[in-house]
Amino acid sequence: MKKSFGPQTLIFPTPVWCVGSYDKEGKPNIMTIAWGGICCSTPPCLTISLRKTRYTYENILERGAYTVSVPPEKYAAEADYFGIVSGRDENKFQKTGLTPTRSKLVDAPYVEEFHMVLECKLLHHYEIGIHTQFIGEIMDVKVDESVLDEDGKPAILLVSPLVYETKSHFYHGIGGQIGKAFDIGRKFG
Amino acid sequence: MKKSFGPQTLIFPTPVWCVGSYDKEGKPNIMTIAWGGICCSTPPCLTISLRKTRYTYENILERGAYTVSVPPEKYAAEADYFGIVSGRDENKFQKTGLTPTRSKLVDAPYVEEFHMVLECKLLHHYEIGIHTQFIGEIMDVKVDESVLDEDGKPAILLVSPLVYETKSHFYHGIGGQIGKAFDIGRKFG
User: Fold this and answer.
1) Residues of A (103-122) whose Cβ lies below 8 Å from B
2) Which end of chain B has a smaller Cβ tally under 10 Å, C or N?
3) Across chain B, what does the average pLDDT equal?
4) Looking at the partner chain, which of A130, A155, A174 has a beta carbon nearest the beta carbon of B42?
């Protein structure tokens, strides 16, 4: 029996991603979001949604760029902090001791200590209700060599990204392998 | 040391969601995607990206609606099959024995057996390279009572959604709780 929860932003899984940007004075900022996803394969694009009131909103429009750094489990508290406090009030990199590395490809900083980072150039932005959706072309994906598998591919259990449990407001890790994609379904013909 | 992977759609986590639609003749179809996410809180909206060649593409434009059913771990093979075969060639519900339930709110079917389903009314669509991004307003979220926690909230470990490991092409489950959101970061002040 299904219970109706009404119109709301309730779905699993949603990501926990940290968006890096520079403000007018060149101060690096970082904020955490759960609203976003890949939106195109060619060109490779990642979308994130922000409210206009966010400090990062103006930064992205002015610089035409943002990064997404994927926080690993060990930095869950830092990622949470990045979503609680505004960059208007604090230098969140200084407060947490994490390192803002300037991207060589786009005008935005990423979190050096996080295993996986994406550097995005702003292509479009659309107003959708109270959120603005930014579409960024992924110019590069950088991954720490320490979290690659034996085939040289990023291993999700080593990258150890977080999943956000909407409604209950918990962060979760990634569980074990369930099966191979484009393979386990072939039994249905 | 970070290794550069170049411009590509590589990020963790990405979801595994099954998109339900009706074709011109009223045949229910279902396909699996990993490109999508929440894109607005008010109105609550979910975005999914599809190639124009997909059978579901025309269905959504004609009916102005789609659903997203979240496949639980136990139906990983079915969800995989939904992403391998086209609805042009097969009735994927019949092949897997899963039940297409007609939404009472939008003109699209969802998967009865999956624990969490969202019913979306098409608001916009944007061309972004080879993918078209559909923006759907979430009209309702329905969740099986069997996967609610003691507070009546959907429990992610019971809903048991899948995470897609891009590049390696594996499905993963959800891991244990890492911490409380808007809480564990407060120690940074």
Assistant:
1) 116-118
2) N
3) 97
4) A130
